[in-house]
Amino acid sequence: MILRSGLIVSAQARADNPLHGPVHMAAMARAAEQAGAVAIRANGGADIAAIRDAVGLPVLGIVKRLDSGDPVYITPDLAAVEEAASAGAQVIGLDATDRPRATPWREVLGAIHAAGCESFADISTFDEGMAAAEAGAAYVGTTLAGHTEATRGRSPDLALVERLARAGVRVVAEGGFDTPALAAEAMARGAHAVVVGTAITNPREITRGFVRALA
Asked: How much is the pTM?
């Protein structure tokens, strides 16, 4: 469903961001579609539904439980799967790292497939990626490389992208691919697609980068 060699734009904004909310995220998604993106990554039922109405692209939906305090917060349970699926996500992402959590990730993966959606496993290491692919994940994203205790400082992880691609995994490069050159390099190393978020859809962080450089 997610086209090969394409750009997936992550349209997300946390509650403290002025662009938080489905109206703004749907507008971001429309702009990304007009620019040639092949899919949109979105968080939460309201944003997913608004984006589904706004664009004709596949929506990779997730539901973040940021208020739980648990480091495993990306679609961590069956209720989160139901929220994303009911909102219209065609692909649902989940945390498939080997970190402990209340609901085993394989159970969440099974619920995604039972809902008739494709699965997108967010992983941080090669072993996690292989386990997710062997469990039936349609896509394996390097999303969490650099965001777990064992992988601090490894974002973007081009070596991980290449290793998974060589192993025959449909790997999507995500996490720190914040320039066109890095995105192109990920594709050259075998990525099925590349996800870019902050560098495209977070004007506040983009502005901060310019301000720091000028200071």
From this structure: 0.97
